[in-house]
Write a structure and sequence with these properties.
Blueprint: H1 2-12, H2 15-31, H3 37-76, H4 92-109
Helix pairs in contact: 1-3, 2-3
Length: about 110
């Protein structure tokens, strides 16, 4: 099922998918004068839900790829601490604490006390 979702999201997030959605919207709009308002409303509602899903899936993929790349950079640099790798899986409070500690260390390195 995931493969189908990712393939659909990939198709709809590119120009051909956009054109398909535009043609569907034009067809739905053309059906309104024939008394098919309920069908048009239904189709456009489903399309909106699908588009929202596409945005969420693409956002997930982008975020996961960015995290992997950042983790690779952190691990590859010998002078960095690796305890931030995987921090995106921590509880929000733990992330805030770690962020506050990193910001404080950065300020101290720049000669500014917080």
């Amino acid at each position: 099922m995931n493969r189908i979702l990712f393939m659909t999201a990939d198709f709809l997030s590119r120009p051909p998918g956009f054109y398909v959605m535009m043609v569907a919207m034009v067809l739905c709009t053309a059906l309104v004068p024939f008394g098919l308002t309920n069908a048009v409303t239904y189709v456009l509602s489903v399309a909106a839900i699908v588009i929202t899903g596409v945005v969420l899936i693409q956002g997930y993929r982008d975020t996961a790829a960015i995290h992997a790349k950042l983790d690779e950079i952190v691990v590859s640099l010998r002078e960095t601490r690796n305890d931030v790798v995987g921090l995106e899986h921590a509880e929000p409070e733990e992330i805030r604490e770690k962020l506050a500690m990193l910001e404080q260390e950065a300020a101290q390195r720049n000669g500014r006390a917080t």
